[in-house]
Amino acid sequence: MRNLKRQLLAGPYMIWIVGFILLPVVMILYYAFTTSSGSFTMSNVLTITHPIFFKALLFSLKIALICTAICLILAYPLAMILNNMKGKHQGFIVFIFILPMWMNFMLRILAWKMLLSNNGIINTVLDFFGLPELHIMNTPAAVILCMVYDFLPFMVLPIYNALAHINRDVIEAARDLGAGSIKIFFKIIVPLSLSGVISGIIMVFVPALTSFAISDLLGGGKVLLIGNIIEQAFTQDYNWNLGSGLSFVLMIFVLVSMALVNSRDTEGGANVW
């Protein structure tokens, strides 16, 4: 009877998995390995070897790695500061970092477009103080800047959560035994927070690799990522077979990168399989 109740409770979730996870994946696989007439082909997947598509894929990997590295460099000390804060202000400061995630994704991108445009707010302020203007709109720098802003909370929160679960007694014991702050950091804090770091890397790298809206609005058509090519194949060319073939290749890169990152997690806290 108890097992029947569990199965009934899991029913809606199973329907969700089949309808919104498995079925889309099956459709991508079907279109990726078939032509418009339905016959089997590998040409959609092998299209990634075309110089333009392969260059876009490598450029997307480069942008995603840079974005992930910057987020990690900014997030780790920030998470340590948040973790070391005392009292009720700690929760409020964490809330401030989460707050931008409540806004619409497109709204955040358009806000950066207004800030970074040649006649935008930043250049108006710089011009007022007689400083040289900033011209990074329609460049990879603008895309990376917006990605870092959008995805930074996804790096901060898992690291902060991992740091918050470190037993203070372990650190105090190490300090009593004569370990210095640097040794405690590298020998205790970093290893014990590694699961949070790995979770953060996955949560930032995957959306950065597959993103297309940011490069569309801030790249001005000059920053072509693999996500833009897939989006154009589906929405402009109506070539679902090509779009699915490239999506399949991108999916392989995402799965391989996640497997490589997970292989470094010795605690299993961030494993996805």
Briefly say what this structure is.
The protein contains 13 helices and no strands. The protein is mostly helical and 273 residues long. It starts with a helix and ends in an 11-residue tail after the last helix.
Describe the overall structure:
With 273 residues, this protein is mainly α. The protein has helices at 2-32, 43-46, 51-84, 89-98, 105-116, 121-128, 140-164, 168-176, 181-192, 194-210, 213-218, 226-235, 240-262. The chain is built from 13 helices and no strands. Helix 1 (2-32) packs across helix 13 (240-262), helix 3 packs antiparallel against helix 10 (194-210) and helix 7 (140-164) packs antiparallel against helix 10 (194-210). The chain starts with a helix and ends in an 11-residue tail after the last helix. The radius of gyration is 23 Å and the shape is globular.
